Amino acid sequence: MLQVRLRGLALDQSNSPVVILEVEKTNKGFGIWIGPFEAEALALAVSGKDFPRPLTYDLFLNTVSQLGGTFEKAVIGQVKDNIYYATLHLQDRNGQLHVIDARPSDCLVLAVKNGFPIFVEDAVFAESSIDLSNLQTDTLQHGQEEENEGFKKFVENLDIEELKKHFRGKDENNESS
Amino acid sequence: MLQVRLRGLALDQSNSPVVILEVEKTNKGFGIWIGPFEAEALALAVSGKDFPRPLTYDLFLNTVSQLGGTFEKAVIGQVKDNIYYATLHLQDRNGQLHVIDARPSDCLVLAVKNGFPIFVEDAVFAESSIDLSNLQTDTLQHGQEEENEGFKKFVENLDIEELKKHFRGKDENNESS
Known about the structure:
The structure is a homodimer of 177-residue chains.
Chain A: E1 2-11, E2 17-23, E3 28-33, H1 36-47, H2 56-66, E4 70-80, E5 83-91, E6 97-102, H3 104-114, E7 118-120, H4 122-128, E8 130-131, H5 160-164
Parallel strand pairs in A: 4-7
Antiparallel strand pairs in A: 1-2, 1-7, 2-3, 3-8, 4-5, 5-6
């Protein structure tokens, strides 16, 4: 199992959002197509911007905290028909572990906000990984995003085709988040 | 405290989504402007449609359930500068009550999906309520929405002006959800 970090957010040629995940201490990673709402939420989480009212993921985290739950990690454990499957691992207040089926996009937003790590199973990495050395994505670090830029700050020259060649004709209606 | 139900979803003249809530067994209610993402999530929840992967609110509910939490109710307790404030009330597995600050839009989506009731404080109702007798909104009941129509099934002749007169120049950037 390999730890990944959020390398960037981009739009492909058909304006579908793609999250670029990079395996720590390598130049290898992979892209996951996510929905526009999830992309917006991720961009807001990355921006570190505070809002006067709790957004959905804030309410989610507050509720888990009130119930004594603690997030441990998320694991991207499978990829099938271009859809990535993840699990959210959390402990209840008795220390019991709970593993919950989740979309990677939700895991990423929660991870950015809460600070827990994200891992990818070796088999998924082996199947999906590409060389990110020449990727011109800006690294998005929590709090470094310019205010109000959010998801508009896209990468112009991301070689989406390199990512896409790992997907046989991504179906727009078959969201991979 | 009065119980409310979701009477309908509509768009105002500037295409901002409005949720119409009605006090049970009356023709009185009020409108809350919500964000487009939350409106979409609410429409999906009302449609009762199942998705192959858990959406954000499904993950939220699954996580609370795994931690032994039980939703009791949501309460719209305050309105200030056109912004409605709500609280989410849930019990942990030891029966202890937790009250969490939330936006009405999140409470509504969770309530529709989970089946818990929504209440409004008398003072909020007194300040915001209007007569809904002539409102041409279709009642949206869980599961009754035509498949794939979702939020596109808007009400054409909703008298938004009647709702708006309760708000002094709603600020588009000052979301009331």
